[in-house]
Design goal:
about 100 residues, mainly alpha, 3 helices, elongated
Length: about 100
């Protein structure tokens, strides 16, 4: 299950990076095309953003569901993990 969660997380990161690249490319195209094509390009950016954000949101929900399922299967392990992370953060913040 950890590999699926990690793969889903990487897929989300890849989608976000692709979205950034697409937006940058579309904005460069808009600048070179002039004001006439800017509205059309703007609409394309908005549409891609909606599509990508929906996809990322869906993947985030799937990862969240997987984590929740793992928590329900082994709640003690998650509580111990949260406690240890709290201890580590406390140590790091107290040392500064």
């Amino acid at each position: 299950m950890e590999k699926n969660t990690e793969q889903d997380y990487q897929a989300i990161r890849n989608d976000v990076n692709q979205l950034r690249s697409d937006i940058a490319s579309l904005l460069k195209t808009a600048q070179s095309s002039g004001k006439e094509n800017f509205q059309q390009t703007h609409e394309e950016v908005v549409e891609k953003l909606k599509h990508s954000s929906g996809k990322v949101s869906q993947q985030a929900h799937e990862v969240s569901d997987q984590i929740e399922q793992k928590y329900q299967e082994k709640p003690l392990i998650f509580m111990i993990g949260a406690f240890l992370i709290g201890l580590l953060l406390g140590r790091v913040l107290n040392n500064k």
